[in-house]
Write a structure and sequence with these properties.
133 residues; alpha+beta; 2 domains; 3-stranded antiparallel β-sheet; 3 strands
Length: 133
């Protein structure tokens, strides 16, 4: 089966031998959006087992590439989003819900700092010496 990706659509084509013309003929099986998380049932019923596996692998590859791109985008936009978050927190009144959100953000921020250190770009602590030491 041929899998063609054009813009935001995945087209599925199958070669079928045609006795009348004495060679293979391309038959359109179906199409689905590139953003599809799984194979739609109307296409799934038309696929053979090996074609289903081939399409599933292609979808997984597309999604893993997209996830890597989204992670990069998140990392590059982090400074801007942090500045916005500071302004948003400054406008809020204390609530239990806000406190829970802040706790969750602090936990994730700790993970971000640890990842920066692992990447070799994080902050290292310069502890101040106490007076008399």
């Amino acid at each position: 089966m041929q899998i063609r990706i054009r813009k935001n659509t995945i087209s599925l084509l199958r070669s079928v031998y045609d006795k009348e013309i004495g060679r293979g003929r391309t038959v359109f099986v179906g199409s689905l959006p590139v953003s599809a998380e799984s194979i739609p049932s109307e296409i799934d019923t038309k696929l053979k087992d090996h074609e289903r596996l081939q399409l599933q692998r292609e979808l997984e590859k597309i999604h893993s590439v997209r996830e890597i791109q989204l992670e990069e985008l998140a990392g590059r936009l982090l400074p801007v989003n942090l500045k916005r978050a500071v302004r948003w927190y400054d406008r809020q009144n204390s609530t239990d819900e806000l406190a829970e959100l802040a706790r969750e953000c602090r936990e994730i921020w700790t993970e971000v700092l640890a990842a920066m250190v692992r990447a070799g770009v994080g902050r290292t602590r310069n502890r101040r010496k106490l007076v008399g030491q």
